[in-house]
Design brief:
165 residues; mainly alpha; 7 helices; elongated
């Protein structure tokens, strides 16, 4: 921001810095230039424009310009160099917490965990093994969520959110 509106600028923008309507307007100007030069089809332009209206930080905006040459929006932090992008893409994908994490989608894990005691009870009365079937409850929890359970995922999300700030 300029000194003319009574607010002083702290410094150059970073990827995690939040953006507002003036920054979105600058992004629209840059996207218009790319559309006019034929780099973006009408569909690509519309998709990027929708993403920009929902963007909250410069990082959300930078994604829209990684495959485009200049011009870039005024005030946008520099794009990562190709070497930095390659290094980021080579980092291993996050591993799901439990062994079944890759098999069972996250939205179904809680339901599956809630049904496990009923399955154990049914097997207790119908199958040999008796009370041992109740061990399926904690075993299923470890298989679905890992040894640290949901707490590890919450801790990881909190750490990632704090790092982005």
């Amino acid at each position: 921001m300029s000194d003319t509106d009574g607010l002083a600028s702290i410094g150059p923008a970073g990827p995690g810095q939040r953006i507002g309507d003036p920054e979105r307007a600058a992004v629209t100007v840059a996207l218009d230039a790319h559309r006019a030069s034929g780099r973006l089809s009408a569909e690509e332009y519309e998709d990027r424009q929708v993403a920009v209206t929902q963007a909250r930080t410069w990082a959300d905006v930078q994604v829209q310009f990684t495959d485009l040459p200049a011009p870039y929006p005024t005030g946008m932090p520099p794009l990562p160099s190709p070497g930095q992008q390659l290094a980021a893409s080579m980092q291993p994908a996050p591993v799901e917490a439990g062994l079944l994490g890759a098999v069972v989608p996250e939205r179904y894990r809680a339901t599956l965990m809630a049904l496990t005691p009923f399955a154990a009870l049914l097997l207790f009365f119908t199958a040999p093994g008796g009370w041992l079937w109740f061990l399926a409850i904690p075993i299923m929890g470890v298989l679905l969520y890992g040894p640290d359970g949901k707490d590890a995922r919450k801790r990881d999300r909190r750490r990632d959110r704090d790092r982005d700030r």
